[in-house]
Write a structure and sequence with these properties.
Radius of gyration: 15 Å
Order of helices and strands: HHHHHHH
Number of helices: 7
Length: 166
């Protein structure tokens, strides 16, 4: 339990700092910003307590909001993603699989993992930019931000996952 807590705390700090110091400086075509911190929520195993996933997601969202000056946007969207993550994960794991399965390419398979990641990241980006803009008057800019940020985030997560498993 202590080793897991230390690993999650290190991942928390690393993702928060990378997001605040590096990734928030990237604005591809003035709309696409990678939101890599959603990777922490996507990586929680099946048997992790739901309340703990929500707590980690909320705290990470608050930390990202603090460093990026987006009051409550990351916390709300990441907590909502954390609330549905166990249910999305259950869709991609066979019923007869062991309970402590971790979502990664090696255990889920590349296609299932990609669909799982795309679903969570797209949901996060939809919520994030809907809350941030709080308006649908400029629907084209909203769609560009959602799709561009989701694509960049998915590419970064899949790259990180492929490097991490080797």
């Amino acid at each position: 339990m202590t080793a897991d807590l230390l690993k999650r705390t290190a991942a928390f700090a690393t993702l928060c700092l990378v997001q605040a110091l590096v990734l928030n400086q990237i604005h591809l075509f003035d709309c696409a910003t990678p939101l890599l911190y959603v990777y922490m929520v996507a990586a929680f195993p099946c048997d992790y307590p739901k309340w703990a996933v929500l707590l980690w997601a909320f705290l990470l969202g608050v930390a990202v909001d603090t460093f990026t000056n987006t009051p409550g946007v990351a916390a709300a969207s990441l907590t909502a993603v954390a609330a549905v993550q166990p249910y999305f994960l259950a869709l991609f794991i066979p019923a007869d699989a062991r309970e402590d399965i971790r979502p990664n390419m090696a255990e889920m398979g590349a296609l299932k993992y990609c669909v799982y990641i795309v679903t969570l990241v797209l949901l996060h980006c939809l919520l994030f930019f809907s809350i941030e803009m709080f308006s649908f008057f400029n629907l084209l800019q909203w769609a560009e931000c959602v799709l561009g940020s989701a694509a960049l985030t998915v590419i970064l997560i899949l790259t990180l996952e492929s490097v991490r498993t080797k």
